[in-house]
Amino acid sequence: MQENKGKIIIITAPSGSGKTSITHYLLNKYPGLCFSISATTRSPRGSEQHGVEYYFLSVEEFQSKINEHAFIEWEMVYEGKYYGTLKEELERIWNDGRVPVLDIDVKGAIHVQGEFPGKCLSIFIQPPSVEELKRRLESRGTETPESIATRVNKASYELSFNHHFHHIVVNEQLDKACAQTEDLIKEFLGW
């Protein structure tokens, strides 16, 4: 596993494209991969816990870490909602002998690629259509009509960046998208 030290897997997509489902599939199958826990200022949803799904920080804590240059990347993804990848999180995973899997937004993913040229694999998970993406977001039952409209508009914009990534996986059927993503990662890591 030492030959993979310093490598990063980036899974990015518009919200609702299935990147989290694909990421969970990979993490459950490969113990050599480890979820990189992002920091955020949004409130926990449902049973989410600090240090498990996210590091939940106040806006002041997040801004303090920005000033300390503690992030590899950070973004105000939605108004007042910051997300970012802490440098110490990647070090924690590498020191454990594993490869971090970043499930992050499109702009953050482009930034991380620039910071780690030749050391990362970026995979863009694309919905079959914007209409299908909207249907998926609505079926979650966790969003208001306004937040769905915001996410769909943002997704349409993010889809225009798909060519910035090493690979595009269209998630029409989750099992096929998982298998395709898995093959790309195994090739990158020499597994």
UniProtKB/TrEMBL annotation:
It holds the Pfam family Guanylate_kin. InterPro entries: GK/Ca_channel_bsu, Guanylate_kin-like_dom, Guanylate_kinase, Guanylate_kinase_CS, P-loop_NTPase. It is found in: Cytoplasm. Keywords: ATP-binding, Cytoplasm, Kinase, Nucleotide-binding, Transferase. It comes from the Bacteria. Residues 6-186 form the Guanylate kinase-like domain. ATP binds at A13, P14, S15, G16, S17, G18, K19, T20. Its EC number is 2.7.4.8. NCBIfam families: guanyl_kin (TIGR03263). Essential for recycling GMP and indirectly, cGMP. Belongs to the guanylate kinase family. It is an enzyme of class 2 (transferase). It catalyses: GMP + ATP = GDP + ADP. It comes from Sediminibacterium sp. KACHI17. One of its GO terms (molecular function) is GMP kinase activity. The keyword Lyase does not apply. This is Guanylate kinase.
